[in-house]
Amino acid sequence: MWQYTLSRHSQVLRENIKYMAISFEDLWLNNRYIRISKYLIFSCLYWFYIMSDFNMTIASTGEKMWNSIFTNSIFAVIITSLFSLTYALKKCLSSRFYLFVIVAIVVYFFNAYFIYFSIRFLAGMPGASKFVLLANQRMSDISLLKVPFDRFVDLYIWAMTGNYIVVPLAIIGIGNTFFYFNRNLQLQKDNLALELDFLRSQLNPHFLFNSLNNIYSMVEETNQEAGDTILKLADLMRYLLYESNSERVYLSREVLFLEDYIALEKIRHLDTSKITFSSEGNFENYRIPPFLLVPFVENAFKHGLDTIEDGLVEIRILVESSRLNFEVSNSKPKRKASGAQKGGIGLVNLRKRLDIYYPGQHELIIEDSDLVYKINLRLSLK
After folding, report:
1. What is the rounded distance in angstroms from the CA atom of residue 349 to the CA atom of residue 361?
2. How many helices (H) and strands (E) does the chain have?
3. Domain range list for the chain
4. Are strands 312-320 and 274-280 parallel, antiparallel or unpaired?
């Protein structure tokens, strides 16, 4: 007996440690304030490094005020360029490689003209350094249109901003690439495990569909409502078994699945329960990953109606200007029951799917009050 108890406690401990690790990873990667803090710390450390480097290698002018303005302006250009390229790099890992090329060209042109006009301006200041005077002499014969293509300007770009951008960008790019492919590999493993578990538990699909069709023909004339319910169940199973195997499905098909699922839930629950569903917009022209919206609805019924006799579930889908707004809210029991609605690993996995399929293109807002649990998912469908 004590061996079983010890084994059970060990299993619970491992599950808690796994959940804590997943929660910490989700917090570290997705929390807005932690992400901003990381950017601020990186910027401060990089500022100290660049300023110490400039003080040893470049003196823009003999006046401290202009020297400070010039060096801090260069730092601002470097940080702006670095974050712009990093953002474009994240976008191009999944798609839109052209975005990174466009941003890189814009950044290069901006750096070229910034250095050109800064040198020309500082050369006219009293006490300009030899570095500035020599650079101004070399750039004096360059026309404005040829500034980004001049070899002398290229040298000064690399010396003053380029090396501070390229090196960290390469490190960040390699890290993002490994992280992106590692997440995709993990997602494929998770999907494969789910498919194997599903295959182990399912009966022969043809047998099930034939049985449902036979039952439908038996009850169609005597009970139309029961016949319609069987058809909805058959549509749900057809979507589960066949149509959801592709990486993306039409949004209209996912919405139809939700409608059938909600219709079956309405039959299962009491008339005192309030279940509302509304959809608005054009769903035909957009594709999303299958079962991206279903878990939110399933959790709403599980925690909103299965634990309350006269509970509430409200679902709303709106597509407008190529953006999806998906809202689900459910009532909560006044006293927290075992297995209360916390999200847990299921919510963490949903966040990971959103991060993989819609990096930087989605927003998931959760409102957890005493009586109502509400989620609001907004994502770009472009």
Report:
1. 17
2. 12, 7
3. 31-193, 203-241, 248-380
4. parallel
- Cβ within 8 Å of residue 289, ≥6 positions away: 247, 248, 249, 353, 357
**Rounded to an integer, what distance in angstroms lies between the CA atom of residue 297 and that of residue 276?**
12
Q: pTM to 2 decimals?
A: 0.48
Give 330's strand partners: 313, 373
Q: What are phi and psi of 117, to 5 degrees?
A: -70, -30
- Per-residue pLDDT band for 2 (boundaries 50, 70, 90) equals very low
Residue of 6 and 136 predicted with greater confidence: 136
Question: Which pLDDT value is given to residue 212?
Answer: 66
- Give the model confidence (pLDDT) of 15-49 as tens digits: 555 555 555 556 656 667 777 787 788 778 878 77
How far apart CA 122 and CA 20 sit, in angstroms, is 55
Do the beta carbons of residue 328 and residue 275 sit within 8 Å? no
Query: Helices in 124-204 by DSSP H: which ranges?
Result: 130-139, 151-157, 163-201
Residue pair 109/148 in contact (Cβ under 8 Å)? The answer is yes
Using the structure block, give the residue that is written with the tokens 């079983």.
Answer: 4
Sign of CA dihedral 23, 24, 26, 32: positive
Superfamily of domain 248-380: Histidine kinase-like ATPase, C-terminal domain (3.30.565.10)
Q: For residue 139, what are the contacts with CB-CB under 8 A and spacing of at least 6?
A: 116, 119, 120, 147, 150, 152, 153
**pLDDT tens readout for residues 254-306:** 898 898 888 888 877 766 678 899 999 988 889 998 888 988 988 888 877 76
Q: Distance from CA of residue 256 to its chain's centroid?
A: 25
pLDDT at position 350 = 83
Cβ burial, residue 318 (10 Å; 0-12/13-18/19+): middle
Task: Let me know if 47 is exposed, middle or buried by CB neighbors in 10 A (0-12, 13-18, 19+).
Answer: middle
- Assess contact for 381 and 293: CB atoms under 8 A: no
Beta bridge partners of 278: 316
DSSP for 189-240? HHHHHHHHHHHHH---HHHHHHHHHHHHHHHTTT-HHHHHHHHHHHHHHHHH
